[in-house]
Amino acid sequence: MKNNKATSKSFYKVVLTIFIICNFFLIKNIINGLHEKFNIAIIVFGFSIFIPLFINIRKKNFFLFEPKNIIPLWFSGMYYISSIPIYSVKYPREFFRTLLFNPLDKDNITIFYILSLGILLFYIGYGLVSILLSKRRKINYSISLTEIIKYKTTIFRIYLFSVSFRVFGYLSGFMGSLSASNGANNNLPNIPFISVFFFIANSWVIYFFYYASISFSSKKNRNIFLFFLFFEFIFMLLSGHRRYLVVILFLYALAFYIVNNYLPIGKTLKYVIPFLIFVFPFITIYGYLLPTLDNYGFISLLDLLSSTLSRLTSISFLDILNDYLLGPILESFNYFSNVGIAYTEFTQKGIAWGAVGPENLLNKLIPSFIYPSSFDERVYYQIFSETAMSYRVDYSNLTFTAQSEQMLSFGITGVLFGMFLQGVVSSFLFRIFNSVKTPFFLRLVYLGLLFKFSINFCSGLLVSDLVLAFRLLFYAIIVYFFYKIFTRNYA
Q: Are residues 302 and 368 both part of a single domain?
């Protein structure tokens, strides 16, 4: 594990650097008398996130992509790091061009302390499960290429179908997504079992992770991976979804780490950061222009790519950095207003929705003939979005986060208990599905979904990304169960 120790040291240095820089600005704000109470609350919040994280990184059994490392880091981006620039200016309300949410509302200090306690409870919940399962479920730190290579042909066929169906979707004008077919000019073709096809196609993260892993076994497998990578990159551009870029980078880094038992973090950042500087602004501009299209036909999308490139090349480099890289990243990550609106407009007015997240998950997992339900998560989205829109919240911040969902469900108690349960569930899943006892098939599915079970864990159960991950894992367990019964009876 020498290489893994080198990775943990590099990771520790990167995280420590981020933490020091953040505290430098926060302490500077306090010395200058700038929003002292808010900045003190953010300092406490930061220590609650990073001190346990530093302890985890220094442990001998460090695993870079374990949820107890990834979830707090993403959580810090959503609420901690993105809040520092806001409270580093004299008039925080003017920080965003349209947002009417008041960052200087005293309730926000309370929210920072609630989130501080919440993330500590996350660590406690995670740690308790890890202790209970440490002897029975030891972490599997690597993956055997000789073991997984024999499934190459089967997964190749499934992945090829996934790519083909999404190509068909773009050529037909519904962009490989059912949601894009709701407009008047985008009628979904009448295809039998089309929802099943979408389900298989949108499971591409599992197949992508598999081929990213075996790409290190031979030149031929690397070329096959590059073939699929090309299509995923094209789909990312055409869809305008910036998060796809994060997913692709995450899965490849995970595959590299788990096959080679290390990740050269410094070298990775050296290549990834310049790549993001040029690709991220392109996708951002494309995403801004996408709603202006009359239809989502393939030719229209190609024309839009051309228009995006023309606009990008006509802008100065500094404007690209400010308006289409740093600004959008900060706005996309700033979900504090999301929780603040939930607290101010709902919790303080005595409005609580109950366990709508778990109910939505059950509704999506269990067939209607077993568990009949009229639950529709879109109703709650509409209720919250109408209120949030009155604050002129950016559309990308309009969706629920785990913490806003918890706040809307049971108020402050919901956030605290909900984050404790997040730690329990994420730790349980990691120990059960990434241990030396886990069957290869289930481990492959889980690792392919690890992005969703870590980063999307911050999105909550009213958002489709995390629910889809639970559905895929649940169905994989069912498939494996019947496979074992079949092979046992006919062996």
A: no
pLDDT at 427: 96
Q: Which residues contact 102 (CB under 8 A, 6 or more apart)?
A: 93
Q: State residue 333's pLDDT score.
A: 59
User: Rounded to whole angstroms, how far apart are CA atoms 120 and 124?
Assistant: 6
Whole-model pTM over 0.70: yes
Percentage, residues of the chain above pLDDT 70? 87
| Own/partner pairs, 286-292, CB within 8 angstroms, 24+ separation | 286/237, 286/240, 287/240, 287/241, 287/242, 290/240
CA 219 to chain CA mean position, Å: 31
Place of tokens 């591409």: 204
Q: How many CA atoms lie within 13 A of 230 on its CB side?
A: 7
Model confidence at 389, pLDDT cuts 50, 70, 90, reads confident
Tally the domains of the chain.
Answer: 2
Dump pLDDT digits (tens) for 229-255. Answer: 999 988 887 777 778 888 999 999 999
Per this entry, what is the length of the chain? 491
Q: Which domain holds residue 172?
A: 145-329
Domain shared by 346 and 299, yes or no: no
Q: How many beta carbons lie within 10 A of that of residue 349, not counting itself?
A: 9
Whether residues 247 and 380 share a domain: the answer is no
Count CA within 13 A, CB hemisphere, residue 113. Answer: 8
In 290-395, which ranges are continuous DSSP H helix?
298-313, 317-321, 327-333, 336-345, 356-365, 377-389
